[in-house]
Amino acid sequence: TTDVPRSIQRALNLRRYHLARARVTVHVEPATDGPAAARMDSQYFEQMLVNLVLNAEQALAGRPDSEIRIGYGRSGDTLVLTVVDNGPGIDLARESEYFQPFMTTREGAIGLGLTAARALVQTSGGTLRFAGPSAVEMRVPWR
After folding, report:
1. Beta bridge partners of 82
2. In whole angstroms, what separates CA 43 from the centre of its chain?
3. Binning pLDDT at 50, 70 and 90, where does residue 102 land?
4. Distance between terminal CA atoms of the chain?
């Protein structure tokens, strides 16, 4: 079981220096009162979130007023978490390609972040997909 707010902070702490240096503002927006928990290993959750934040951070490189929004809440028996940035976004018609190993649009990148994030979520019985050109949505069972 993962304490969602705590794991979000732990994941962000791993990127804090890089986010500050790139002048990226991160907003965490809970849409639920009280504790939020997911039926997912906390290390998997944190690694998945680090991958999504890093991906968003890289998409924002060099943009003024860069922002990442992490929202989470409960929908029935599911935890829904979204990571949204104000970068250029992707071509949604090619969504499935972005989750393929070694697929990247950036010079010097490896192209495994989204692949690994999706694998970690699927291991926990959840899904990871694009919810918009600059938004990724994770759904896993609520605790």
Report:
1. 71, 137
2. 14
3. confident
4. 6
